[in-house]
Backbone:
């Protein structure tokens, strides 16, 4: 039996590729490719293949030692056929990733939603270890989530269960990348905060975040954290608004599903502890009092590698 698998996390701003030891879950080597601006099937394919080749060269592992390739992709997917049906954050639609990678590397290829894979990683080796009843929520470019009941991931009738980011919080609200209006993701994601800050700056509002911004560069979670730590009013108010919406979404999850544990992860959660602490405090206040006494919150334990590790165990 081969000792390793390759896990690939296709995110909205980066492609993270890791060589994973199947016994320990340890990421032995990794390669990161940025994809914030260059997206679409052609660009994603090129960067992914380049990253895998770099990984193989730098880690000195032969293809014969690798059991499988697992891919975690943001968006709607066809698991059985290995097709990304629609991933607006990647600008990829009807992308047969299984065909591409199996043709290139002659290895079994498995595909899952990015949050589903990250949840699997946290279940096996991270914050969810030992808990069979939880919801995992990742806040970054979007807001993704996954439900686990009795130790099993709940996929639903069409395999798309757990889309917390696309519950409607304002019927006539902001446009979302999915094509709808008023989705939670349009209010509570890092991208939503970024848009609110940029909009205010264009209107002439002052912010200390300008001290960190370079021309042509995007606002990052780190910039947001530093601005809050310095008491910036604009950035703090935009983060407070996002927290208000996200805590309401989490309260709805607690009331509807009544999980034992909610795991929160993603770039914004990891970088901005103010946002994390405020959100979980408000979620407990907004949900029903009985489940509020039992719900536990944890941050992800595997950081950036949740999706990579989970993807490696899809096969």
Residues:
């Amino acid at each position: 039996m081969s000792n390793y698998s390759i896990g690939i996390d296709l995110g909205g701003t980066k492609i993270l590729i890791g060589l994973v030891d199947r016994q320990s879950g340890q990421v032995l080597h990794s390669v990161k490719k940025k994809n914030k601006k260059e997206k679409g099937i052609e660009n994603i394919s090129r960067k992914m293949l380049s990253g895998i080749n770099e990984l193989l060269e730098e880690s000195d592992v032969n293809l014969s030692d690798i059991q499988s390739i697992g891919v975690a992709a943001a968006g709607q997917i066809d698991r059985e056929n290995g097709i990304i049906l629609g991933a607006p954050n990647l600008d990829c639609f009807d992308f047969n990733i299984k065909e591409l990678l199996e043709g290139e590397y002659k290895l079994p290829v498995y595909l899952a939603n990015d949050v589903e894979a990250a949840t699997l990683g946290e279940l096996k080796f991270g914050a969810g270890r030992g808990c069979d009843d939880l919801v995992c929520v990742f806040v970054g470019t979007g807001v993704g989530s996954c439900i686990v009941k009795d130790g099993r991931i709940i996929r639903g009738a069409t395999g798309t269960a757990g889309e917390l980011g696309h519950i409607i919080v304002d019927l006539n609200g902001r446009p979302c990348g999915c094509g709808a209006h008023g989705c939670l993701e349009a209010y509570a994601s890092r991208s939503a905060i970024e848009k609110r800050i940029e909009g205010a700056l264009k209107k002439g509002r002052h912010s200390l975040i300008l001290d960190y911004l370079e021309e042509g560069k995007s606002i990052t979670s780190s910039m947001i954290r530093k601005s809050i730590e310095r008491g910036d009013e604009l950035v703090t108010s935009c983060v407070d608004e996002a927290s208000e919406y996200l805590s309401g979404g989490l309260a709805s999850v607690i009331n509807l599903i009544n999980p034992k544990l909610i795991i929160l992860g993603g770039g914004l959660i990891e970088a901005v502890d103010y946002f994390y602490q405020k959100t979980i405090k408000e979620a407990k206040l907004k949900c029903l009092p009985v489940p509020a006494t039992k719900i536990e919150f944890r941050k992800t334990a595997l950081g950036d590698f949740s999706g990579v590790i989970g993807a490696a165990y899809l096969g």
Q: What stands out?
A: The chain has two domains: 4-121+305-312, 130-299. The chain has a mean pLDDT of 93.
